Amino acid sequence: MIEVTGSLKRQLAVWLLVTVTGLGALLMVEAWRSTHRAAERAFDSQLEAAAMTIAEAVQWEEGEPVVEVPAAALQILATRHQERVFYSVLDTSGEPVSANMPFSIAPGWREQVTNEPWAVTATLDDTSWRFYGREYDSAGWISQEPVQIWVGHTREGRKALADELFERSVSHFVAMVLLAGTLMVMTMRVALAPMRRLRHLLRRREADDMRPLDARVPEEMRELANTLDHLFDRQRQSRESLLRFTADASHQLKTPLAGLQSTSELALQSSDPAQWHAALATVHDGAERTSRLAGQLLSLVRLRHIGGEGIATPLDMNGVLRETLLDWAGSEAAREHDLGLAELPSGPVWVRAEKWAIRELLGNLIDNALRYTPPGSEITLGLERHDDETVLFVEDNGPGVADETRDRLLQPFERGGRQGTDGSGLGLAIVDSIAQRCGARLTLESLKPHGLVVKLHLPLCENEGTP
Which of 301-310, 369-378, 395-404, 427-436 has the lowest mean pLDDT? Predict the structure, then answer.
């Protein structure tokens, strides 16, 4: 029974969506960080440029620095976001030479700038500020005393620039996701096209078309296509086997029925009661053989073409062998043969199988041995126990079969060249079908100087001795 558990397209879409969402989240985090770093670098460069512009305007008069801050220095920091811009020029003692900064520079900051230029973010009066400080030497002047220049502004412009850059990144990402989604849908349609072609090819096939597939498939579908070809091949072989079996069965049934018809027609043309009695006896024997043939045909069809899993239980093969032998020992067919039992292993021998199947198998082997051996022949049933299996065998000292025909004995209606007997040629075919049902292995071996032994190799029960 086929159970639909979902759609491949939907599963692919979900997994791609999860992947894209995860990667997108990481990209958005990185974009947010990158845009803020870019905004910081851009505005820090402006602070540095403004500080250098102010430094160029520093002059010395009578040993004292004089600063007239050019308008260009403040224009560098002026943006459309209306940040508040401040500067401060400090002498070596930390006193402002020129400043519009409403707060003083901390001593620790001044100490940091003596080593290298420094930028710092601080919160003053509940407002976030960005400051840049740098110390400039007055080389070439009369006085060699350095001055520190500090510039700073509020961070509204930085935040606005970072948000703008981030919004652009998000819009680009959304556009890329939409484009990727469209391409993904097209890609899935193209990638799944071979499956649709294969589905349409199978739907157009007739029920009896078992030819190999004629289709071009990608590497990922090669195993599926090969599996379908193997399935078609097995179905073709099964169908041909069934047709041959039906034809052979029809022929086998037609022959005794034709004989019954001929006998009855001759009896109807005669007025002698003795001939009627002889004809009735012939008809009775023919009907009995035909009934047995029909029963064997039904058993073989049930085993081979109907199948069905049975309930296997642990069986003691010693007990099954004794029961079957007792049933056959008193039959009329066994009166002219020496039917016996070989020495059995000590203790029970457990296998997992269906009891009726084993008894049916033994019955067919005994019946075959009785029919295809001359009166007085010895027929022996036995059991051998090995490490991981038990071997059930039925052997006789009859004429045996030729090596070239022995392999064909498992086919229906095959008698090994002994067409003069009243057997149907179905016994070993039924035995082989039962062996396959039980998961056992069947072998046929010739005996010296003559005779035949049929062996059934059964695995021992895992929980031996626990029925």
Answer: 301-310
Rounded CA-CA distance 321/358 in Å is 9
Vertex 318, ends 312 and 323: CA angle to 5°? 85
Average pLDDT for 221-246: 82
Query: Which residues on adjacent β-strands are paired with residue 343?
Result: none
Decide which of 75 and 208 is more confident: 208
Output the pLDDT for position 128: 85
Give the phi and the psi of residue 136 in degrees, each rounded to 5. -115, 130
What are the structural domains, with CATH classification, of the chain? 9-163 (3.30.450.20), 219-306 (1.10.287.130), 313-459 (3.30.565.10)
CB 339 within 8 A of CB 329: yes
Report how far apart, in Å, the C-alpha atoms of 66 and of each of 63, 69, 76, 343 are.
9, 10, 21, 128
Q: Tell me, what's the pLDDT at 5?
A: 72
User: Which residue type sits at 121?
Assistant: T
Question: What is the reported pLDDT for 66?
Answer: 65
Across 209-223, 240-254, 408-422, least confident range: 408-422
Q: pLDDT tens, 75-103?
A: 666 666 656 778 888 877 788 888 888 87
Query: How high does pLDDT run on average in the chain?
Result: 80
What is the three-state SS of the chain? CCCCCCCHHHHHHHHHHHHHHHHHHHHHHHHHHHHHHHHHHHHHHHHHHHHHHHHHCEEEECCEEEECCCHHHHHHHCCCCCCCEEEEEECCCCCEEEECCCCCCCHHHHHHHCCCCEEEEEEECCEEEEEEEEEECCCCCCCCCCEEEEEEEECHHHHHHHHHHHHHHHHHHHHHHHHHHHHHHHHHHHHCHHHHHHHHHHHCCCCCCCCCCCCCCCHHHHHHHHHHHHHHHHHHHHHHHHHHHHHHHHHHHHHHHHHHHHHHHHHHHCCCHHHHHHHHHHHHHHHHHHHHHHHHHHHHHHHHHHCCCCCCEEEEHHHHHHHHHHHHHCCHHHCCCEEEECCCCCCCCEEEECHHHHHHHHHHHHHHHHHCCCCCCEEEEEEEECCCEEEEEEEECCCCCCHHHHCCCCCCCCCCCCCCCCCCCCHHHHHHHHHHHHCCEEEEEECCCCCEEEEEEEEECCCCCCC
What is this structure's pTM? 0.48
Backbone CA torsion sign across 227, 440, 398, 413: negative
- Report residue 412's pLDDT band, with 50, 70 and 90 as the boundaries: low
